[in-house]
Amino acid sequence: MFDSGVGGLTVLHELLVSLPSEDYLYLGDTARLPYGNKTPEQLRGYATEIADHLVEAGSKLVVIACNSASAVALDAVQRNLVQRGLEVDVIGVLRPAAQLAVAGSRSGRIGLLATPATVASGAYERTMLAADPHVHLESVACRDLASTIEAGFPFDERLVDIVREYCSPLRAADVDTVILGCTHFPLIAPMLQRMLGRGVTLVTSGAGVARSVERALASSGLLNPRAGEGSYRFRCTGEVEPFRALGTRFLQMPLGDVRRVELGTRIAA
Ligand code: DGL
Predict the structure, then answer these.
(1) Which sign, positive or negative, has the C-alpha torsion 208, 74, 255, 157?
(2) Which one of 168, 185, 205 terminates a domain?
(3) Contact (CB, 8 A) for 130 and 104
(4) Same domain membership, residue 88 and residue 211
(5) What angle do CA 262, 70, 111 make, to 5 degrees?
(6) 29 phi and psi, to 5 degrees?
């Protein structure tokens, strides 16, 4: 699985809990972060390249643990693998969160906090309206939030101010459900819940993604039959130590094996 940085660890955590017997390889594309202000073409290039890298490293399924990339690159990544004769399922994070929000909202007034790339794609709106044409989606493009979270601790007053500003249109729109449409945002869920109020349900994609992964692996007979725990390994495209330090803190488990990899050559070529 991959994300632009440590945000996707919120999804990895769900998978480690739901499917503990599997082996995981997580790539954080920290050299090219943030993804949220990139064009769809750039994101398709990055995502295709990383999926190739993960499959070449032996992955039997790819999770795009990033909303921005899932929103614009899911089909391109799957198509590219099929063209190369590789039967590997690709699962994104967008549909599970959208479906959960539509099913759970009573008022049908749903908020979305996501990166500018995700909001501009209109992918959440399309998925939700396909599930129920009567829901109303209030989207807020959070320009610098993922990078600020990725910059790490301490979370200071500046972050609180940024988060308060992004929550204010959602409060005004009287939503009862808010999709955390960026994998970095569950890392500040307590702050968001305080600003949005207890009555608002925060929706994240992790648990739904884990169920999709389980179904996909089961249907192709690829679930790992071992009884014990599998392994997890990490790769990043930027510096190893900051990734390890922040990742350990967010995953609340030692990251262990982290390797730096060079990507971008195929895109440049
Ligand atoms: N965490 C990613 C997402 O879910 C992207 C954050 C970023 O790199 O801008 O959209």
Answers:
(1) negative
(2) 205
(3) no
(4) yes
(5) 130
(6) -85, 60
**Could you tell me where the beta strands, DSSP code E, fall in 12-153?**
24-28, 61-64, 89-92, 109-114, 136-141
Q: Is 236 a catalytic residue?
A: no
Tell me: do 129 and 179 sit in the same domain: yes
Q: Which of 10, 12, 113, 115 to mutate to test the pocket of ligand 1 (most atoms within 8 A of CB)?
A: 115
Q: What is the mean pLDDT of residues 117-122?
A: 98
Q: Is 184 in the pocket of ligand 1 (CB under 6 A)?
A: yes
Is the Cβ–Cβ distance between 209 and 14 less than 8 Å?
Answer: yes
pTM: 0.95
Ligand 1 midpoint to CA 118 (Å):
9
Cα–Cα distance, 1 to 3 (Å, whole number) = 7
Sign of CA dihedral 116, 117, 121, 125: negative
Which CATH number goes with the domain that contains 197?
3.40.50.1860
Q: Which residues pair with 178 in a beta bridge?
A: 111, 202
182 is catalytic: yes
How do residues 99-116 score in pLDDT, each as one tens digit? 999 999 999 999 999 999
Q: What pLDDT score does 269 carry?
A: 42
Which structural domain range is residue 256 located in?
Answer: 2-92+207-268
Residue 201 and residue 98 in one domain? yes
